[in-house]
From TrEMBL, chains A, B:
GO terms assigned for molecular function: DNA-binding transcription factor activity; transcription cis-regulatory region binding
Classification of source organism: Bacteria, Bacillati, Bacillota, Bacilli, Bacillales
Record organism: Paenibacillus apis
Keyword Cytoplasm: no
Coiled-coil segments on the chain, per record: none
Name used for this protein in its record: Catabolite control protein A
PROSITE patterns: HTH_LACI_1, HTH_LACI_2
Keywords, sorted A to Z: DNA-binding, Transcription, Transcription regulation
Pfam families: LacI, Peripla_BP_3
TM ranges: none
Gene3D superfamilies: 3.40.50.2300, lambda repressor-like DNA-binding domains (1.10.260.40)
Ranges for domain HTH lacI-type: 3-57
Length: 336, 336
DNA sequence: TTGTAAGCGTTATCAC
DNA sequence: GTGATAACGCTTACAA
């Protein structure tokens, strides 16, 4: 078996309480004993059992995170941001994947409760009332990241980029560049923050400029390359008057859309401009280089975990925090 | 506080032992009591404390994984494969990032020991003797995935794709397509499996066909887009006779290399063919569509976690297992 | 300052 | 079949 605090106590000829005090610096211990204990600890390479410790302290130094899919670069970057802070603070990260299914999300919330995590970061698709209730019933703090609750109530702390504003800015940018016929390839309709909110920003920008919003210019994909291709095809085939620009709600779909246009001998950006969202690394190496909206998911994760730590320490934090976005001008959008 | 086994016992008017038996199905309990206990458990929504359980059972149902960078799609896919199996088996995954630094890797091995994980999956860069020793000293089973130990000893179980053979096959494919002047953009020289082994496969294929291996045709990148660009630039500038094909050791660098060639008005594949490695999704949407070597990292992760489970259950498994690779023919390689 | 002993919430070993 | 009770390895009153 592993070496225990008792072994250390015996070998250092002190009580287990003293060893514990030395480990935790919890109470004064005479320098002499302290050294004796530390020497033995070093020598035997003793590490306190974190289960026993967690059992009594009700703190495990484990943070849970729930994401739809860890192989998605967006959630990868998010997780990396989170992990960077956790490691520095001596915490470890338990990663759970929900596939974006609400049932699974609820289940995972329970799994993490079982594991006695100190807090949870939650990235989902649609945080509706049922899910919010579920979250409120958990006895660990939760921070929503990447999306807000869809019931309009601000009861769970949230770190997010402003999707409405981001799309508004992006579409306004297209308008400033002379575009009037602007189509949208958006996210799933049931995706509150990345679907509905972005759609809202798109409409806002158009309406503000008195540009008509055309249903035939709006398609909903699922953020995959394939769906970008498919949505672009529909817009292309179902409109006799083509848009001069397409706002695509993530880079992967933007690449898919461009792929379709290339196949159809439509030149980007000469004939149609394409704007993406996220600013994944490959967009810079794509041809044409992708104009996009940069979201730093690393920073978003970082802010979220910092917020969670404050919550764990029972400090007060604003209910909602926004991460800035930035228009990245490259080649795929042309001024007309 | 949370409801405990004792609360359940009281409410069901039985002993804690009986409740425990019901929970674990460990010993026969009369149907009558069983029902009474289960009803109370249901009603109070009781979940046994996994820390207390872990403390006594010496099993936590937690698996650790150490990867260089979780935002790298390769490790993302790997992790997803692992997680898919873990979830199904009621295990959770603790994800640690090493940045590929050996010191950090050793530290994380210790962190996971602290957390009493039941086993660890390790994806690193150079698993040398020191690291192997460290691993052997851990009291949980470890499976190397994505790379083998670099000291030649097969003492840690390993799940990997055959890098030598994969490169051999890829370069042979180029040769079959008429290429003789084949350059290589490889991985870091200190990366045993993905660097040295792939280089070896490249050389083997050339030598077998009596094609001279030219130093000026070999560059080492770090698997990033940028380094692919940079390596391609060097090859382009430092050779008066250009290669007709470049074997690039991952897709990201391949895209970077193509980017450089485009910038230099060299057409791919008309002037130079480019072959990638990994088969990340975007390669299919890139233009020209990327010819590459497909590795299913999802499957690799899956096989690795299955192996680890066998080890945990003390079943015997082969020391090294190979995951198949496959040449994916697309546009970026031309027959000449 | 130090030690003794009572938990923390389980499982497992005994008796009955 | 069922129930006390002793672990598991630690922290923390409470005493000394």
């Amino acid at each position: 078996m592993s070496v225990t605090i008792e072994d250390i106590a015996k070998e250092a000829r002190v009580s287990v309480a003293t060893v514990s005090r030395v480990i935790n610096n919890s109470k004064a211990v005479s320098p002499e004993l302290k050294k004796r204990v530390n020497d033995v600890i070093e020598k035997r390479n003793f590490k306190p059992n974190s289960l026993a410790r967690g059992l009594i302290m009700k703190r495990t130094n484990i943070i849970g995170i729930i994401v739809p899919d860890i192989s998605n670069p967006v959630f990868g970057a998010l997780t990396r941001g989170i992990n960077s802070f956790c490691q520095q603070k001596g915490y470890t990260l338990m990663v759970c994947e929900s596939g974006g299914h609400q049932e699974k999300e609820v289940e995972l919330l329970g799994v993490l409760a079982d594991k006695k995590v100190d807090g949870v970061l939650f990235a989902g698709v649609d945080v509706n009332s049922a899910l919010v209730e579920e979250m409120k019933s958990m006895r660990y703090p939760i921070v929503l990241v990447t999306q807000e609750a869809s019931n309009g109530e601000e009861v769970i702390h949230t770190v997010i980029h402003d999707n409405v504003k981001a799309l508004y800015d992006a579409v306004s940018f297209l308008i400033e560049n002379g575009h009037q016929r602007i189509a949208l390839i958006g996210g799933p309709e049931n995706d509150y923050s990345s679907g509905q909110k972005r759609l809202k920003g798109y409409k806002q920008a158009l309406e503000e400029q008195k540009i008509e919003v055309l249903d035939s210019y709006i398609e909903h994909g699922d953020f995959s390359f394939e769906s970008g291709y498919e949505c672009m095809r529909k817009i292309y085939e179902e409109n006799s008057v083509l848009p001069t620009a397409v706002m695509v709600c993530n880079d992967a779909m933007a690449i898919g859309a461009i792929r379709f246009l290339k196949t159809s001998k439509v030149s980007v950006p000469a004939d149609i401009s394409i704007m993406g969202f996220d600013d994944l690394e490959f967009g810079r190496y794509f041809s044409p280089e992708l104009t996009t909206v940069r979201i730093s998911y690393f920073d978003e994760g970082l802010r979220a975990i910092k917020t969670l730590f404050k919550l764990i320490q029972e400090q007060s934090v604003p209910m909602t925090q926004f991460i800035p976005h930035k228009i990245i001008r490259r080649i795929s959008v042309k001024k007309i």
